[in-house]
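User: For a reading group we're discussing how well predicted structures match intuition. Take Sporulation initiation factor Spo0A. Before you show the prediction, I'll give you the sequence so everyone sees exactly what went in.
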Amino acid sequence: MREKTIYEKIAEKYNTTPEEVRREMWIAIDAGFDNPDPAVQEEWKKMTLKRERPTPEEVINYAVKKLKGK
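Assistant: Thanks. Here is the predicted 3D structure of Sporulation initiation factor Spo0A, as structure tokens, for the group to look at:
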């Protein structure tokens, strides 16, 4: 049996689908990325991005590393 993805766990908790969770994350990333607040923009600059905006997976990985103090 495979382990549930983070999207599946969140979807289960909030009674929605993993696809909807990921879609909502994209919306939140876009809103955050467009935020003109200098402190918010500085935080985005700390991320290593493969393209203009991070994917939900990149944001999750960044958050996990930050929480672990890496």
